[in-house]
Amino acid sequence: MIVCCSLNFKVESEAEEVEEEEPEVEPEVIEEEEQEAEIEPEAEVEEQEEEIEEEVVEEEEEEEVVEDEEEEEEEVVEEEEEEFEIVEAYEAEETMEEEEVIIDEDEKEAEEEITYDINFGDEEEEEVQQNEAELIHEEMEKQIEEYAEAQTDKAFVAIDENEDGVFDFEEFTKLTQVLNMGLDEEGIIELFNEVDTNQDGNIDKEETTQYLISKANAEIDTNKDGEIDEEEAAAFLEENVAVHEAEETGI
């Protein structure tokens, strides 16, 4: 019994010592610990909220980037469509201009062909008329020359008594009297000088023929413009033909 009591006493004494060794916690420390315990969840919540906000901001930024990229893509597509429309319109305009040019060229060629046909017909008609006029003039000149040569031969046969082939002033004076030209001496001198083109003092057959031709041309040139047109030449030929027919029939 004594031993048991001593053991119990010993255990109790040790327990008391343990209790005495445990430090007493001050109330302030407890409050700080409680406050820290309260702060720690709040800080964690705030951190979580900040993380969430950052994630939201990142998502918004990503969405903005995506929207910007989409806008850029849309702008590029629009620009490409506009460029395509411009190019297509330009090509269509060029094609229309080329077609118009081709049409204008075709119309021009057609007009030129028509004009050429008309002009060619006019040219043919003008050429025919010109040929006819030339033939009339040639025939007129031929008949005038034949007439002048025949009259010259007659004059020399009648007046050139010494048959030297020229008229001196005396023989020429006699010729004017035979032809009843009614010239006085001054008029005869003036006419002699006019016919004597080389001014050698004599008038040969060539000078006489040329003078008669010039006189005939002056008579044929009824409008006195210095030229014999087709109508004047044709009128002379008709008159000359009538004269020849009258001579042949003796009328």
Structure description:
By secondary structure, the protein is mostly helical. The chain is rod-shaped and about 190 Å long. It is built from six helices and two strands. Strands 1-2 form a two-stranded antiparallel ribbon. Helices cover 84% and strands 2% of the residues.
- Described by the principal axes of the CA atoms, the overall outline is rod-shaped
**What amount of the residues lies in strands?**
under 5%
Biggest sheet overview: 2 strands, antiparallel
Total helix count? Answer: 6
Distance between the termini: 216 Å
Oligomer state equals single chain
Following the backbone from N to C, one meets helices and strands in this order, namely: HHEHHEHH
User: Would you count the extended β strands for me?
Assistant: 2
Which percent bin holds the helix content? over 70%
Mean pLDDT: 77
Instruction: Detail the poorly predicted runs.
Output: 1-5, 18-22
Widest sheet, order of strands: 1-2
Q: Whole-number radius of gyration?
A: 71 Å
Quickly give the structural class: mainly alpha
